[in-house]
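I would like you to sit down with the pair of lines that follows and say whether tokens and residues agree.
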Amino acid sequence: MTVLIVGAAAVLFIGLRTALLFMGATEGDVPATASIPLPAGSRVVDEEEQCASGGCWSLVSVQPPSGVSPSELSTTLGTEPFARLPGTLWDPRVVNLTSEVQGELLVVRADYWSREAPP
């Protein structure tokens, strides 16, 4: 009986959290850097949040692991040209990723609002 009550409470909590995330969503929400699946050895050297009409996004400058070029890291992340990462149980919103090579760094843009450009 206790297991059923705890299970029901967990499901209710997750459902309420999901509803609150979507109801309280604003264009100012940006995904956490931790939501970007960077391979081991990658190093985040800068994080910045930017906004314009249509929403906000985070720009994460990443130094690839040793022996990996920024363009190879982009391919690994699937950001050529656009990647959509499924949400998690804690935050079910989809994260959209694009990236641009800037010298020895890969600058990854992460947001909840953009849509893949039509072909």
